Amino acid sequence: MKEMAENKSPSAGVRGWQIALLVGIFGLIILFYKGLWGNPSFIPPVIVGTAAPEITAPDLYQPREVTLSQFRGKVVVLNFWASWCLECKLEHQNLLAIQKRFGENPNFVMLGVNYQDKEDLARQYLQEHGNNFEHVRDLKGRISIDYGVYGVPETFVIDQNGVIRHKQIGPIVGETYTFLVEGLIEPLLNGTATTS
Amino acid sequence: MMKPFVLVPIFLLLFTSLSTAQTLTEDQLQVRVKEVAKTLRCAVCQSESVWESNAELALQMKEIVRERLIQGESPDEIRAYFVSRYGDFILLKPRALGLNLLLWIGPFLLLAVGGVFLFRTLRKWVAETSPASPEDLSPIDEKSRRRIEQEIRALEPDK
User: Fold this and answer.
1) What angle do CA B94, A53, B39 make, to 5 degrees?
2) Which residues pair with A135 in a beta bridge?
3) What domain of life (chain B) (predicted)?
4) Which residues, 6+ apart, have CB-to-CB distance to B137 below 8 Å?
5) How far is the alpha carbon of B133 from chain A, nearest alpha carbon, in Å?
6) Within chain B, which residue ranges are assigned CATH 1.10.8.640?
7) B123: burial class by Cβ within 10 Å (0-12, 13-18, 19+)?
8) Count of CB atoms situated within 10 Å of the CB of A142
9) Is A43 near chain B, with CB under 8 Å?
10) Structurally, what CATH architecture does the domain formed by B4-90 represent?
11) pLDDT tens digits for range A70-104
12) Which residue of B has its CA nearest to A42?
């Protein structure tokens, strides 16, 4: 009986130790799992939630400069695209639909940013696929790098306060379109968006 | 008043010194651009540095590094700019922060935990296998004792 009592306390200590070790190992396994089976090319959009960088860029069609600050107080949808980008074609009709839906609203602006492209090819693309909103040219990648863009299409939704609320990587199709239109732009324009 | 033929060499001297100074800073600038660009990851071709890559994005990023160096920004400030846009991802050598910190110190932490564990186990083994006190040993019987002595004598024939 005496021996058993003596043995009990150190073994309980070891058990606490073992539990801590097990938790640690389990944590590491989760970390390794995320590292090995996660998408290594996924870049977390750190820019979301920060102030949208200022844009000063030439209009694709007219000899004038467009700035982002001139749209302050409005909801701005910023779409990066290129004529050589296949996935841009997938979302193009949806972009036109978004403009058609909100274009009348004085508090809404959609701006296309033509990324790593040639001016004439960009115009040709818009002529071919249709166009109903303004576009600027991204000279030397200044705008796209300022926004952390690493491919096209990428779309940013900027709120009335000039804060980036969402970054969409890849084309706006299917559920993404529904989410952007009904879950984000509309609530922002109605002032019913939840602050996140 | 200086005569024109005196002015010409002065002008030439000034001009050449200016141009050599410019090429020197150009070389230095290139070295510094390389220094920074080698630590940045090309976001398109993710296993390459911005310096090595010929992707358009990498070329544009190099151009930005160059401009910011000319404006007098430090390499750390330039890196901070890219991190603010692309996140830690853009650094080829990630900073020791947050979860990254765990990866940095994790191996040493594990080594320490393993060391403590090994130390404890070894001490336990030593305690278990330490020689018992003489009273614990059961006395050998007379017959066996005589047998052992006989065997020892057999091993030492000289005596």
Assistant:
1) 25
2) A112
3) Bacteria
4) none
5) 19
6) 4-90
7) exposed
8) 17
9) yes
10) Orthogonal Bundle (1.10)
11) 999 999 999 999 999 999 999 999 999 999 999 99
12) B89
